[in-house]
Amino acid sequence: MIHLDRVSKSYRIDGYRRTVLDDVTMYFEAGHSYGLLGVNGAGKSTTIRLISGAELPNRGRILRTTRVSWPLGFANGLHHSMTGRENVNFVARVYGENERAALEFVADFAEIGPYLDAPVRTYSTGMLARLAFGLSMAIEFE
């Protein structure tokens, strides 16, 4: 279960504060699939980054009783100065998974060949998406 409890998130943009989420409470029960729909700027990506832990709320709290996949928001979870191989190994270590098995799966899935040893910042959008998606499937999440 993931519970957003009175979560608020805002950013300072061009000298003013832009509120993206304001006192939001949501429940995501385990065993269900959810989708976030909304117009541009509605807070979908921000909500995903908050749930994943990539960002913290300004107010409120987020409770997780399940293991959340690191790439909620996909490529934002990768370190762009590290190579694809280094990113895969790092994420596998963080989640206590077998690095070799994760790397073999991602290399086979992403089909980026020698780019696996290049910094992620040099990847095309498609290569980055395949690496991130492959990594999300290589690690067992609830």
Description:
This protein is α+β, with helices and mostly antiparallel strands and 142 residues long. The chain contains four helices and three strands; from the N terminus they run E-E-H-E-H-H-H. It has helices at residues 44-52, 84-94, 99-110, 125-138; strands at 2-13, 16-28, 59-64. The longest helix has 14 residues, at 125-138. The termini are close together.
Secondary-structure element order, as H and E? EEHEHHH
Helix percent reads 25-40%
**Widest sheet, order of strands:** 2-1-3
Query: What is the domain tally?
Result: 2
Shape: globular
Give the structure's gist in a few sentences.
The chain contains four helices and three strands. With 142 residues, it is α+β, with helices and mostly antiparallel strands.
Key phrases:
about 140 residues; alpha+beta; 2 domains; 3-stranded antiparallel sheet; 4 helices
Annotate the secondary structure layout.
Elements: E1 2-13, E2 16-28, H1 44-52, E3 59-64, H2 84-94, H3 99-110, H4 125-138
